[in-house]
Every structure is written in C-alpha cells, then in structure tokens.
Amino acid sequence: MNTVRQVFPIGAQWPTLDPFLFTAHHLDRYPAGTETFGPDPALLVGRHMCSDFEGKDGWNMYHGREVPGFPQHPHRGFETITYVRTGLCDHTDSMGAAARFGQGDTQWVTTGQGVVHAELFPLVHRDRPNTLELFQIWLNLPAKDKMVPAHFKMLWSEETPRVERRDGDGPRSEITIIAGEFDGKSGQAPPPHSWAVREEAAIAVWHIRMEAGAKLVLPPSPADEVNRALYVFDGSEIVVDGEPVRSGHGAVLRSTVAAELVAGDGPVEAMVLQGRPIGEPVAKHGPFVMNTEAEIRQAFRDYQETQFGGWPWPEDAPHHGGAEQGRFAKHADGRREDR
C-alpha cells in the first residue's frame, strides 16, 4: 500500500484531520514600526480595518486597529497551540496571565470552560522590518474535558528538543519537537487536561527543516488508527517514498509504516501533525467548539452573561511595549518567567 494516501493544496489555512480542528500559517512581512508599535498610519489607507486579511503589501492588520493582531475574543472547548518562529506575540487573557513570546517559543492554552484572550503583534523595531511567522493549531478536546478549567502554559524555545539527522557529511535535516516524541526525545509536557497528555493519543507536532537532497525517515506511529498529515509549507518539495509533495501542498500519510522523506533540489520546510482521532461529533461556531448545537448556544449565553470571568485589562488590545521588554510569561497564579 502507498505511504501517501492523499495530496491536497494548502494556503494560509490548512485542512486538518481529527483530533486537529484548524491550522493557520501566518507570514506577515511587517514594515518598521512607529512609536506606538504599529505601521505608519499612511500604510493603513485602503485597508478593511478591523477585518484586514487580504495580505496587502505582504501583511495584514487582522482585527487590530493600531497594532496588528487579535484584540480580546473568547474561546471554549478546545486548545490553541501557537508556535512563533519569527517576530513577537503579546498575549493577555481573562485569567490574568500575560506573555511575550517568539523566536521558536510555543504557547499552549486549554480554553476548556471558557477563556478570553488577546494576541497582538507589536512592531518593536523602528529601524528595520518586523517579519512575523507563526502557526496556530487548534486541537480538539473530548467531551469529558471540554469544560475543564482554562490553563495557560509556555513551552520556551530553549527547552524545546531538536533532533538532527544526516548521512556522514551529507545534507542535514532538523526536527523540532513541539509535541510528542521523535527518536527517543520527547517534547515538553502539554497542559494537564490536554488530549495530548494521553499516551494512547499519540499526539505529535513536528517542524521539519531539510537541506537540498537530505533524507529523513519518519518512524511508524506507536498505535493503529492514528492520523498523520505532512504539510510542505516552504521551499522545494519532499518526495515521500517516491511520491513528490510540492511546496504549498499537504499529504495524508499512512502512519503505521515508516516513511522515507527526501528533500528536493533546494531547502524545504514542513510540519507534521499526528494524533489518534477523538471520534466524537464536532459542533463549531466562531470561537467555540463543542459536541452539539445546544452546547454552542449555551456557550454564547454563558459568554454574554459572565464574560468567562471578565476582562482584567484596561483596554481590548493590550501589548507589552517596545524591544526593551524581553520574552516573559506571567501566569495566573502570579508566577513569572523571564527569558
């Protein structure tokens, strides 16, 4: 049987398989910032402000008015995994947690019974461009965990394991283990109520970088009935057991067999998302993911009545200032981490 079961095109939003719900790849080549950490106001003329997703000039304001990003908005019933390769993300939430992260950091939030958060992308450099590249992955929760307490966790780049592979002096491959295990190395622990906590879920999120002509073998999954998808998002192509998957395309892989990956005639980058399906009904509407339409209606009522605990910040789109503020996390219990 072929290792590649299906090939499909990808764009800014990638098709996913259960237990994953959604993946967005943001690549914004922001210009130099102003003293208020946004683009020059002259560059905002002609944009659909507060709903700017057209990629004009190679970047978006999203829902931001002054600083690009997403002002406060609610979620319930799933998890967000936000992996920032380049640039900075400033996070605030209704639990009172805050963070500035980037440069290979990952933020993992279990939204559970409900959380409100904001994600802003401050343009901290005034003398050069402020390129941002991030991946936001939505991971579902099973019905029994959809109403667990919300939880915020940082997976810092310095503690994120990486595996290097090469044949002698040949071209090199590097695997960044955001979640799961590769070659005996395990990613940092996810939040306590994540589907990824369960060993039988076999969750993996791997970022793969390959030099031209490099070879890499993906091991078989540790269990049957595990979904595995490869997304080639930049560079040349990856040939999977003889079948090419060009940049800008994804492939559903048979997970029970090892898969040999061979990079094309230039460097290439890909993500792998793997996991055992939860296999439950999915009801989605906007920021909420539950099992039934009745639960979605209840989520809207709860948010309207309680604001999921309220918004403890003085504005809808708070950020953490200029480049003098380094990467940090302030947790809901008051604990602080500085990097």
Automatic annotation (TrEMBL):
Co-factor note (free text): Binds 1 Fe cation per subunit.
Residues annotated as domain Pirin C-terminal: 205-309
Feature: compositional bias, Basic and acidic residues: 330-339
Entry protein name: Quercetin 2,3-dioxygenase
Matching CDD domains: cupin_pirin_C (cd02247)
Cofactor annotation: Fe cation
Membership in a protein family: Belongs to the pirin family.
Binding sites annotated in the UniProt record for Fe cation: H73, H75, H117, E119
Region called Disordered, residue ranges: 309-339
Any one GO molecular function term: quercetin 2,3-dioxygenase activity
Lineage: Bacteria, Pseudomonadati, Planctomycetota, Planctomycetia, Planctomycetia incertae sedis
InterPro entries given in the database record: Pirin, Pirin_C_dom, Pirin_N_dom, RmlC-like_jellyroll, RmlC_Cupin_sf
EC numbers on record: 1.13.11.24
Organism: Saltatorellus ferox
Domain Pirin N-terminal: 61-139
Keywords linked to the UniProt accession: Dioxygenase, Iron, Metal-binding, Oxidoreductase
Top-level lineage group: Bacteria
Enzyme class label: oxidoreductase
